[in-house]
């Protein structure tokens, strides 16, 4: 992936996609299985739900900081 994000003053390097696990396919105590959750993610985003990322410098990210994506 090797893309960049900027969150507040933090420069962030996106290293890889984070795949959604299949636990929504298995019923849990008190909850039915929900296969449509994973199907929807797969249909729109190749099963990726998020990303793994590493800050390139030691800074603090605060609630409300603006997020910018390098496209």
TrEMBL record:
A GO MF label: pyridoxal phosphate binding
Residue ranges constituting the MOSC domain according to the UniProt record: 1-70
Pfam annotation, one family: MOSC
InterPro entries tied to this protein: MoCF_Sase_C, Pyrv_Knase-like_insert_dom_sf
Protein name per its UniProtKB record: Uncharacterized protein YcbX
